Amino acid sequence: MTVLFSAHSLSHSIDGNDIFTDMSFDVKTGTITEIRGGNGSGKSSLLKILCGLIKSNSLDVQQDVIGDISYLGHSNAMVEEMSFRQNFAMDGKTIDKVLAQRLNIFRLRNQKLNNLSYGEKRKIALQRALQSGKRIWIFDEPFAGLDDNSVATLESIFSEHVKEAGTIVVANHQQIISNSNIINMEKSYA
């Protein structure tokens, strides 16, 4: 397995406050890496560092990795007043019918997002990221708002992706994903 990201004594602070310090880890192809920790422990910041949205001199990134990342943060980044289909069309994409049926959202393709539940909106945002064609998926809390069946479907899609040499990094508060590597961001507050 090829190392895609290698952190050496990685630290990050915001406004002079250390969010995390002295982290070292590798992320390799064909793996799922979970970043786990409480609120404010730096999970989202670490994902942004991996994506190159926050610069760091303590992270070595394999050449051409940044252009092969599909990132989904906390925000679904869609226009609520438009339909599922219209949001995809705005990005020049069409809905992958098979994937939408697996996620149980194809029936929603003509619905405006502001009429949907949080879980339905999250699955639509996930669909956009999943069908990106990118080999590295970096998702912040992908299971948030999903019911048990949707979580199981997404875990199955994750498993298929890593079997095809894809790589997944997620911040996750839900149950641990089987066969994942864990980066623990737990932090004790004095």
Tertiary shape: globular
Which structural class should the secondary elements be placed in?
A: alpha/beta
Low-pLDDT parts are none
**Nearest-angstrom radius of gyration?**
17 Å
Q: Main sheet?
A: 5 strands, parallel
Instruction: Classify the helix fraction into a percent range.
Output: 25-40%
Beta-strand residue percentage: 25-35%
The total of beta strands comes to 8
Fill in the CATH topology.
Answer: Rossmann fold
- CATH class wording: Alpha Beta
Overall mean pLDDT stands at 93
Order of helices and strands: EEEHEEHHHEHEE
Whole-number count of domains: 1
User: Looking across the biggest beta sheet, what order are the strands in?
Assistant: 5-6-7-3-8
| CATH superfamily annotation | P-loop containing nucleotide triphosphate hydrolases
Indicate the CATH architecture. 3-Layer(aba) Sandwich
Oligomer: single chain
User: Separation of termini?
Assistant: 40 Å
Report the total helices. Answer: 5
Summarize, please.
This protein has five helices and eight strands; from the N terminus they run E-E-E-H-E-E-H-H-H-E-H-E-E. The chain is α/β, with parallel strands linked by helices and 190 residues long.
Notable features of this structure?
alpha/beta, 27% strand, 3-stranded antiparallel β-sheet, 5 helices, globular, 190 residues, Rossmann fold
How does this model look, in words?
27% of the residues lie in helices and 27% in strands. It is α/β, with parallel strands linked by helices and 190 residues long. It has one domain (3-184): P-loop containing nucleotide triphosphate hydrolases (Rossmann fold, 3-Layer(aba) Sandwich), CATH 3.40.50. The strands form two sheets. It has a five-stranded parallel β-sheet, with helices on both faces. A three-stranded antiparallel β-sheet has the order 2-1-4, with helices on one face. Strand 1 and strand 2 (17-28) form a beta hairpin. It is globular and about 50 Å long. The model has no long low-confidence stretch (mean pLDDT 93).
